[in-house]
């Protein structure tokens, strides 16, 4: 038929025989990231959420780095202020010392030259000293190396000594004024300069400490900036690789599997760890592939059944014609054999009678065999005309076993359910099925064995089990034993199991090989519905 779907309609490509493809492995330098990629892929979260978390993590690192930088910059600003104050204190202390030295210089010049203009400069230097001392105290009121009260007292003593020198000078006692200057006023100025030198040294120490703190903060800032920069770059690279391989690997796998599914290999399945949109896509693709696989096998089965039905129809037509043509000659041969038997029985020669009788028995057996084959052919032609009637299944099985030839080497065991109800079925055809199964079992045990037949009720069906301990069925032949004209027995027609299958399925039942241990034995199971069903083939 032109519309028949052949079994080669969809042929999987030769390179797609492996059942499942695997995720692509990461490149060797990035292979240590594989556990992290699989871990993130296994998180039950959408792709956009995972990407957002990755970006937020990078932003958090930048925010932390900025916060640390602001903190360090604030501390560096404090250190700059400390440096400025320390430098200002040094400048003020040095100016104070210079003011004291200037006073002594102007005093000596005044005594030597007699010029009163130098006394005016001494007053200006004293005013500058007082002003600078007040500024120093306002900048660092907690300065502990020198007491400001002590400085004031020394300054007052210097002022008093200076006034005494001026008074002696103005009274004309210049020599005495010189002596007082060198013995009283100048030593006091040296004492004041020593105290100011201590202030300068202390301010220098403060400047050095502030500078060291500033350099430390600057180094810490550089360390934080470089550390967070490297960490940010490393994190960005890590997240980029993580996210890219998180989605690239499943996409590549899905693409490969779908290409093979598109080529006709519906056994392919996608196995990804992702629990996000890609995981859902893989699950849907697997469901689609499974559905296509089911549909493909359903089409194959429908095609097989269609081909078998066409073959069955052709065999049925041919078998009817052959059976009709053979039945008449076989009848004539049987009648001739019967008449010859009568003639032989009347023969007085015992030896010749025995030899002819053996030949006639062989003829009778071959006639029976031929009639059995004709019965199969006729059954193949008329198996659709099934007529149901209340039937005792246990009695049917017993009759079928009783009709077997007497084979002493085979033990027949019957395990029949005593509570079995009558079942509506075509008694004669079911009887023929049981006989066919029993004959096949006997032929499978040429050296003897055990034939076991049992019945029971199960899930609304009557189960008939016929088991033997014979040579079994080869695994390669299991799928073909119900095909018409297929046989492994010398002289077999290949119609017995094919007819049996059509008869049982025509009454809504099933027949199948339930067990085959290859050389140990074979078990056939027939299931017939208790309630009659409309034939699926009618």
Task: Pick out its properties.
3 domains, 10 helices, alpha+beta, Helix Hairpins, Heat Shock Protein 90, rod-shaped, 8% strand, Four Helix Bundle (Hemerythrin (Met), subunit A), 538 residues, two-stranded antiparallel sheet
Gist?
The protein has 538 residues and is α+β, with helices and mostly antiparallel strands. It has ten helices and seven strands.
Give a description of the structure.
The chain has 538 residues and is of the alpha+beta class. The chain has three domains: 48-241, Four Helix Bundle (Hemerythrin (Met), subunit A) (Up-down Bundle), CATH 1.20.120; 278-382, Helix Hairpins; 386-538, Histidine kinase-like ATPase, C-terminal domain (Heat Shock Protein 90). 65% of the residues lie in helices and 8% in strands. The strands form two sheets. The protein has a five-stranded mixed β-sheet. Strand 6 and strand 7 form a beta hairpin. Helix 2 runs antiparallel to helix 3 (117-139), helix 5 (174-262) runs parallel beside helix 6 (277-346) and helix 9 runs antiparallel to helix 10. It starts with 33 loop residues before the first helix and ends in a 9-residue tail after the last strand.
């Amino acid at each position: 038929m032109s519309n028949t779907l052949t079994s080669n309609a969809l042929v999987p490509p030769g390179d797609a025989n492996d059942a499942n493809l695997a995720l692509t492995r990461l490149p060797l330098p990035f292979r240590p990231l594989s556990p992290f990629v699989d871990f993130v892929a296994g998180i039950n979260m959408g792709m956009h959420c995972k990407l957002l978390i990755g970006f937020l993590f990078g932003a958090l690192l930048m925010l932390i780095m900025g916060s640390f930088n602001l903190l360090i910059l604030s501390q560096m600003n404090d250190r700059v202020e400390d440096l400025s104050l320390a430098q200002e204190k040094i400048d003020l202390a040095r100016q104070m010392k210079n003011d004291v030295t200037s006073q002594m210089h102007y005093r000596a010049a005044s005594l030597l030259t007699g010029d009163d203009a130098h006394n005016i400069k001494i007053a200006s230097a004293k005013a500058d000293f007082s002003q600078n001392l007040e500024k120093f105290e306002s900048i660092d009121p907690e300065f502990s190396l020198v007491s400001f009260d002590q400085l004031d007292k020394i300054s007052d003593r210097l002022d008093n000594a200076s006034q005494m020198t001026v008074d002696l000078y103005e009274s004309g006692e210049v020599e005495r004024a010189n002596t007082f200057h060198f013995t009283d006023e100048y030593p006091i100025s040296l004492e004041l300069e020593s105290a100011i030198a201590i202030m300068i040294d202390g301010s220098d120490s403060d400047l050095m400490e502030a500078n060291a703190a500033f350099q430390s903060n600057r180094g810490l800032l550089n360390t934080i900036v470089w550390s967070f920069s490297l960490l940010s770059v490393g994190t960005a690279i890590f997240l980029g690789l993580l996210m890219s391989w998180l989605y690239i690997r499943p996409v590549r796998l899905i693409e490969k599997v779908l290409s093979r599914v598109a080529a006709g290999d519906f056994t392919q399945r996608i196995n990804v760890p992702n629990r996000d949109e890609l995981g859902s896509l893989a699950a849907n693709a697997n469901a689609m592939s499974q559905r296509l696989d089911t549909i493909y096998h359903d089409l194959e089965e429908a095609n097989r059944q269609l081909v078998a039905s066409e073959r069955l129809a052709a065999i049925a037509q041919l078998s009817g014609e052959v059976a009709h043509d053979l039945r008449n000659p076989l009848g004539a041969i049987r009648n001739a054999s019967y008449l010859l038997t009568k003639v032989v029985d009347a023969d007085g020669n015992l030896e010749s009678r025995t030899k002819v009788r053996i030949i006639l028995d062989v003829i009778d057996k071959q006639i029976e065999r031929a009639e059995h084959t004709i019965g199969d052919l006729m059954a193949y032609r008329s198996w659709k005309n099934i007529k149901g009637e209340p039937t005792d299944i246990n009695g049917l099985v017993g009759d079928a076993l009783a009709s077997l030839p007497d084979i002493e080497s085979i033990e027949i065991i019957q395990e029949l359910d005593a509570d079995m109800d009558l079942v509506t079925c075509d008694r004669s055809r079911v009887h023929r099925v049981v006989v066919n199964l029993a004959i096949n079992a006997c032929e499978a045990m040429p050296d003897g064995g055990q034939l076991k037949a049992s019945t029971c009720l199960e899930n609304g069906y009557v189960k008939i089990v016929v088991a033997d301990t014979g040579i079994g069925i080869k695994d390669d032949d299991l799928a073909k034993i119900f095909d018409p004209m297929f046989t492994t027995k010398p002289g077999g027609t290949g119609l017995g199991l094919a007819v049996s299958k059509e008869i049982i399925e025509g009454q809504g039942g099933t027949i199948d090989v339930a067990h085959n241990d290859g050389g140990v034995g074979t078990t056939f199971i027939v299931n017939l519905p208790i309630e009659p069903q409309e034939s699926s083939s009618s």
